[in-house]
Hints:
Order of helices and strands: HH
Radius of gyration: 16 Å
Largest sheet: none
Helix content: over 70%
Mean pLDDT: 91
Shape: rod-shaped
Structural class: mainly alpha
Number of helices: 2
Amino acid sequence: MGIGDKAQNKAEDLGGKAKEAAGKATGNEELESEGKGDQIKSAAKDVGEKVKDAASTTKDKLTGK
Length: 65
């Protein structure tokens, strides 16, 4: 996972947390749900990047690189 990808995913996660908090504070359930959704998308992207990293590492070990 590249540094840029990590930063982008973290920013999306933090933005989602901010939306969720703002939604809770104002009683805006739609904004709160949107924030939770942003956090879930960020977590899914992190998992995908980790799988890619693991596959790349495994390939390198198998090919001796």
